[in-house]
Design a protein that fits this description.
Blueprint lengths: L1 H6 L6 H26 L24 H27 L8 H26 L4 H25 L6 E3 L3 H27 L15 H29 L4 H23 L4 H23 L2 E3 L9 H6 L1
Antiparallel strand pairs: 1-2
Helix pairs in contact: 2-3, 2-5, 2-9, 3-4, 4-5, 5-6, 5-9, 6-7, 6-9, 7-8, 8-9
Amino acid sequence: MNRFVAWLPDHVDRRIRITAWVSFVLNVLIIATGGAVRLTASGLGCSDWPVCVPGSLTPTPEMGIHGVIEFGNRTISGPLLLAALLVVLFVWRLRRERKDLFRLALLVLVLVVVQALVGAFVVWQELAAALVGFHYTVSVVIVCIAAAFLVRMHAPAGRRELAVPRPFAILTHVTTLALAVTVVVGVMTTASGPHSGDDDVVRTGVDASLLAHVHSWPGYVLGALLLVLVVWAAVARLRPLKWLLVLTGVVLVQIAVGVFQARNGLPPLAVGVHMVLAALSAAAMTTVVLNLKAPAPVAADSPDPAEALTR
């Protein structure tokens, strides 16, 4: 046992970096495959959980292509859970000096397990719109936390301090709120739209066209706020500029996709792209927020943190 613990990383090494990226990619991928399940009406391709159908873990020929699509989405849950477990395991020896990484890794693992249970209830409740929306929202939250881990693993341990003007930080948080509102209203819009996951599932009954217009309002506000932040960061050469440019690019593509799908009868592929881009937008926003702060300078007479831990 001691040899195994000694084998675990004592610093952020290649093992941690690779597994963290795998975890992030798989959490984005499962959003894409979950979208495919809904958009191909394969939500009940497997009618039970954890088995696909009563008496069979895998889909039977009677389930057709819908069973294959739904089971394919479920299959990703295994590697995703394994990746989350490995990240927690690999930061185990760092859990005291890098509490931030350990807590983020543990939170991803817990939410992945919760997400699996929510998926079970989604099937048992035959794709209830509220549960399906919650299922997607939890996935977006996991992607954001996984993105936060990626940012923090490249940063040194220790105290951090604000690295931008406070008004800029406040405006960034307001922009984060605008993005969150956009995503939440988008989830509500999808819950009332035609892509329910199964042809027999009843939607919320709310006018999807009305919600689509409401969904666009915070989206345009988000775009305007981002442009202000980009110009401000460029003029003042602020730390988050690079990621603000990435985020703005993703959001502008997202707006274009949203306009396209609204004007073309919600084609499934466009809706799926819209879902994935929403998660990537949230991840990029998380990165921007984390870049508002930088490691605080260490005073010359301050003890080295690593030495302090050994005393």
